[in-house]
């Protein structure tokens, strides 16, 4: 009997031990189920976050594509701008040359105007001199005619004598 009691006590102790173990395992199962629920919630949250990030990646990729296109357009515009700048420089150089030629031409024109003025003064002076000479000629012609007439009178009076 003692053995039976001992066995019963052992069985009770063992049953208590198994019950404690059962309680522990039950607690562990609850914890694991709670962890599982937390993990499932975390997975759902991360899945949602992943979808959001994927959408954001798509948006960013489209923006990158747009930025690349804008960069290409900017490069093209820069190239056009460089071409226009070169053309502008050429036109400015041509303008400077034209200005230089214009200044030279203007200077030559001023010189020509001065020469024309000098020649006009000279022409005026020569016309005045011509007029004076014509007047002198007319006076001398008149004196010549008078002297000729007087000489003819003298010649005629000498012939009459």
From TrEMBL:
Plastid found in the keyword field: no
SUPFAM superfamilies: Tropomyosin
Compositionally biased region (Basic and acidic residues): 98-113
InterPro entries reported for this sequence: Tropomyosin (IPR000533)
Chain intervals for the UniProt region annotation (Disordered): 54-113
Pfam families the record matches: Tropomyosin (PF00261)
The entry's keywords: Coiled coil
Keyword Secreted: no
Entry superkingdom: Eukaryota
Name by which UniProt lists this protein: WGS project CCBQ000000000 data, contig 00008
Natural source organism: Kluyveromyces dobzhanskii CBS 2104
């Amino acid at each position: 009997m003692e053995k039976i009691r001992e066995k019963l006590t052992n069985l009770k102790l063992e049953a208590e031990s198994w019950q404690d173990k059962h309680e522990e395992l039950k607690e562990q199962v609850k914890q694991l189920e709670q962890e599982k629920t937390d993990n499932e919630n975390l997975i759902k949250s991360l899945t949602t976050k992943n979808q959001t990030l994927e959408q954001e990646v798509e948006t960013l990729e489209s923006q990158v594509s747009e930025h690349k296109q804008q960069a290409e357009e900017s490069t093209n515009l820069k190239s056009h701008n460089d071409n226009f700048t070169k053309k502008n420089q050429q036109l400015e150089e041509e303008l400077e040359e034209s200005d230089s030629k214009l200044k030279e031409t203007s200077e030559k024109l001023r010189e020509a105007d001065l020469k024309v003025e000098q020649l006009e003064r000279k022409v005026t002076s020569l016309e005045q001199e011509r007029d004076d000479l014509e007047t002198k000629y007319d006076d001398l012609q008149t004196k010549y005619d008078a002297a000729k007439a007087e000489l003819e009178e003298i010649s005629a009076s000498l012939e009459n004598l």
